[in-house]
Amino acid sequence: MMTSNFNYSSAASAKDFKINSTSLQAENLAATEEDSVNYRKATFTKRHLFILASTFLLLIGGAFSFYLLQAEFKAVNMNRMNTLGGIILLIISGFLLVFRLGFLTYIARLFFKYKPVNSVTDTELPSCTVIVPAYNEGKLVYSTLESLVNSKYPAQKLQVIAIDDGSKDDTWEWMKKAKEQWGDRIAIYQQPKNQGKRHALYRGFNLGTGEVFVTVDSDSIVEKDTLRNLVSPFVTNEDCGAVAGNVRVLNNEKAIIPRMLNVSFVFSFEFIRSAQSALGSVLCTPGALAAYRATAVKNCLPEWINQTFMGKPTDIGEDRAMTNMILKQGFHVLFQRNAYVLTNIPEKFSSLHKMFTRWERSNVRENLMMSKFAFKTFRAGSKSGPRILLLNQWMKMLTTYPLLLIMLILLVAHPVLFITSALLSILIFSTLPAFFYAKKYNIAESFWIYSYSIFYTFGLFWITPYAMATASKRGWLTRELPQKK
Asked: Subcellular localization, per the record (predicted)?
C-alpha cells in the first residue's frame, strides 16, 4: 500500500498495471496526478462480498457472544484471582495492554508530525543509480525497467542497472529486449550462476556511479515522480543516509490475499513508517523501493556482503541489514510517502507464509544487531526514538512464547470464551487501520483489514515463534520458478 502518474485504484491496480508493455506505456502517458492519488474505485465479485459478509457475521457474532457470556467470563476471572498464577497472568496482561496502547499513542503523535519532502528541482537532483536485481521474473522485469526509464528524472543523471541473478526462465531475454528498446538508458548484466539477491545488489553497488543508489525489485512498478521524490531528502537533509519508499500491492484486483494485504501495507507504511521517519529512524528500507547515500553504502559494503549469523553467511534480510548499518554510521533513515511503488505479493498461502517467515527471521537477526549499537552514542542528537522503537521490537519477541503458551492453555480450557474474546479483540483493534485506509482512500476496501486480521490470527499466528526458533536457517524460500498457468 497515490500520487502522480499512473492511473489506478486499490481494487483495480493490477488491471491498470497490466504487464503488457504497450498498455503500460500508454497508461503512463495518459494518467494524471488527480486520477492516481486516491484508490477510490472498488469492485466486488460475489466471492468478495461473501467473504466480507462472513467476516462481519463472525465478528459481530463474537461481540454478541461476549455480551451473552459475561457471567462465564466473570466466573473465570474470579477463579483466576484466587490463584497466584491467575494474578500474575492478570498483571502481565494488563501491563502488555497498557504498553501497547501507550506505544500506539506515541506513534500516533509522531505520525501527525510527519511531512514528506517535496521534490527538488532538476538542477538540484543528484546523480542516481537504480539497481534492479532479477531472478525468474520473466516479463515483469521488462515492465519494471520501462517504468524506470519513463520516470520524470533527468536522463543524464539517471543510470539504470539490471542484473539477472542466474534465472532459469526467460528473464534474461526480457532484459535484452529492454536493452534493445532503450539502448544506453539501461545496462544489463548476468550473474554466472544464481548467488542470491544480496550478491546481485553488491555487483550493482560496485558498478554504480551515482551519488544515490536506488534499489527496486524486479516485480515492481514505480510512478513517474517516484525517483525524484525518493531522492530529494538527500538534498534537503545532509544527515539523511537512506530513504524508504511507499510500497503498495500490484496484484490485488482478484486475488484475496493481496487485496487484504493492500490495506495492511497502507497502515504499515503510511502510518508506522511515517512515525518512524519523524524520528529519523525507519527500521527497514524495503527491497521493493529504497534509496541510499552512495558514500554510506560504500562505508559498510564489505561488512554487508560478508555478514554472517551464527557462523553462516546471511542470504536474507539484505534490506534491514543495510538499514541497520547506515543507522549505525549516525545517519538518519527517512520515509517518503510520496514515492510510490506497486509490487507483487504472493497470492497463495504457501508462498505468503514463507515470505513472512523470511521477514521475521530477518527481524530476529537485525534486532540483535541493532541492540549492539542503539544504546551507545551512535549519532548526534536524541537517540531515545530509535531505542523506543527497538524496545517495542524486543517486547514483541520476548512475549511471543509466553503468549503462545497462554493462548494454547485458554484454547484448551475455555475454547468458546477464548474464540469469542479473540474475535472481539480483532473487531476493536482492526478498526484503527480500517479507519486510516477509509479516510485516505476507500471505505469499502478498508473492510478487508478485518478479514486479514482473522486470517492472520488463526492462520499465521505461528510465524513469529517458528521464525525465532529457526532464525539461523538460510534460504529465500520463495524464489522458485513461477508456475505456468
From this structure: Cell membrane
Strands 212-216, 128-134: pairing kind = parallel
Task: Please report where in the chains the cell 494488563 appears, as a residue.
Answer: 94
Amino acid (1-letter code) at residue 89: L
* Residue 7 near residue 276 (C-beta atoms within 8 A): no
Which residue blocks in 256-398 are alpha helix, DSSP H?
Answer: 256-266, 274-278, 294-305, 318-328, 349-371, 384-398
Residue 11 within any structural domain of the chain: no
Does residue 109 fall inside a structural domain? no
Q: Look-up: residue for cell 483489514?
A: 449
155 lies in the same domain as 295? yes
d(CA 341, CA 225): 10
Q: Per residue in 89-121, pLDDT tens?
A: 888 888 888 999 999 999 999 999 999 999 999
| Residues 166 and 305 grouped into a single domain | yes
Q: Domain count for the chain, please give it.
A: 2
CA separation for the pair 468, 463 (Å, rounded): 9
Report strand pairing: 312-313 vs 308-309: antiparallel
Task: In whole angstroms, give the CA distance from residue 133 to residue 205.
Answer: 11
How does pLDDT run across 119-135, given as a tens digit for each residue? 999 999 999 999 999 99
- Return the sign of the alpha-carbon dihedral for residues 27, 32, 36, 38: negative
Q: Residue 268: which domain range?
A: 127-351+366-385
Same domain? For 233 and 292 the reply is yes
